[in-house]
Write a structure and sequence with these properties.
The protein is an all-alpha fold and 50 residues long. The chain contains two helices and no strands. The model has no long low-confidence stretch (mean pLDDT 77).
């Protein structure tokens, strides 16, 4: 059975809380890097917890 290209399922997955994939401190480190560029007054841990 051939599947039409328009009929294929497409999805994007965001696992921000490490529920599916454990990132260790990778997520916090990424948030820290992003926030440090524009929002240095925001603590990465507080942002991530929110």
């Amino acid at each position: 059975m051939k599947i039409d290209e328009d009929m294929k399922m497409k999805a994007v997955l965001f696992d921000v809380y490490g529920t599916l994939i454990s990132t260790g401190t990778g997520s916090i480190n990424a948030v820290k890097s992003i926030l440090s560029k524009k929002h240095s007054e925001i603590e990465p841990e507080a942002f991530y917890a929110e």
